[in-house]
Amino acid sequence: MLTHRLRSEQDERLALDELVLEVCRELAVPALERDVELAYDGTAGIELKGNRFALKQMLQNLVENAIRYSEPGSDVQVTLQRDGSGVLLSVTDRGPGIADAEKPLVFERFYRSPGNSRSGSGLGLAIAQEVAGHHRASLRLKDNAPQGLIVEVHFPSGRLS
Question: What catalytic reaction does the record list (predicted)?
Fold first, then answer.
């Protein structure tokens, strides 16, 4: 279970930008198989103290969800940048998005939107929120106009190395 793994592994200094790029490279082929373009734009040299296994799991869940819900011929954009109070990771898709009334519910384990025909366990965003919390990061869902979802993870400067 991820909770056990979070507690049992020590946080370490790691290059977050390299980890995000690694996940994007690993998911490039599955994205292409769905006819979704996966793009990464990140700032080099972003390091933080964290749990590598958990952060990678969170990143995979966020990017896989974005690919899964994107329409063929669209794109998923992953960005990593410094901001005034830390680092902002965002994953932007052009899928159906999430209704405002459902946004708080998608963080519950096994929650699946009514009428959702796409495969999945309903655990991805619950795990992502758990990992973000462990790293004192905030996770936020925003609408991507005219269509889609933006998932933002903000790591506070206190987690940066």
Answer: ATP + protein L-histidine = ADP + protein N-phospho-L-histidine
